[in-house]
Specification:
Residues 10-154 form the Class II aldolase/adducin N-terminal domain. One of its GO terms (molecular function) is metal ion binding. Residues 1-32, 173-193 are annotated as: Disordered. The chain has helices spanning 35-44, 107-114, 138-168, 179-190; strands at residues 50-54, 84-86, 123-126, 130-135. The chain has 193 residues and is of the alpha+beta class. α1 packs across α2 (107-114). It starts with 34 loop residues before the first helix and ends with a helix.
Length: 193
């Protein structure tokens, strides 16, 4: 787990793109196992200048079978037909070659994820995990990460609101027209006067 203490330049680890190993072999730590996400994206897409990988809780629900689509103008970089979803289980090596822990912890899994960025794709969701976004600069990928998260939150709320609208319209089999009267009768008992 990441320390909550302030970060400094000493906390940075520089990696080789070719194998995701630290440039300084005497480094006391190799860093995060998911460094293969970044190395394989850079290796497979030389035009990419920056990548962000996130475990945003707002984005994880969007892999529930409903495609994540742009919901407002700041998320126009998302694919209109829905953001691609990387399904890691399709890429695990047989015979116990890969840990089945949903982490992109080797070159093969990283390369499979990186392939999702072909054809100029900016964001790829990762089932049960989070997402990765790429771009031309650090600023661009940070904004894409922020707006992917905000767009996901908007879409999630819209989905809940749509369901609630159906309940109000009487379209739900369990709802009754008398429900609002019950609420009115309960209000004096629940709310202070």
């Amino acid at each position: 787990m990441q320390s909550c203490s302030p970060a400094s330049g000493n906390d940075l680890i520089e990696y080789h793109v070719g194998d995701a190993e630290p440039v300084d072999p005497s480094s006391s730590t190799k860093g995060y196992s998911e460094r293969h996400i970044h190395s394989e994206v850079y290796k497979g897409h030389p035009s990419v200048q920056a990548a962000v990988h996130s475990h945003s809780e707002a984005v994880v629900p969007t892999i529930s079978g409903v495609p994540l689509r742009p919901c407002y103008h700041m998320a126009g970089f998302l694919r209109a037909e829905g953001v691609l979803v990387y399904e890691i289980s399709e890429h695990w090596r047989g015979g116990g070659g890969d840990k089945r822990d949903m982490l992109v912890s080797n070159e093969g899994l990283g390369a499979a994820l990186a392939a999702h960025f072909d054809d100029g794709v900016a964001v790829t969701l990762m089932r049960g995990h989070g997402f990765t976004t790429v771009g031309d600069s650090i600023e661009e990928v940070v904004l894409r990460a922020v707006y992917t998260q905000k767009n996901s939150a908007i879409q999630n709320i819209a989905a809940l609101t749509t369901r609630a609208a159906y309940l109000v319209g009487g379209g739900h089999a369990g709802a009754s027209q008398g429900g609002s009267g019950t609420c009115r009768r309960m209000r004096p008992r629940v709310l202070p006067r």
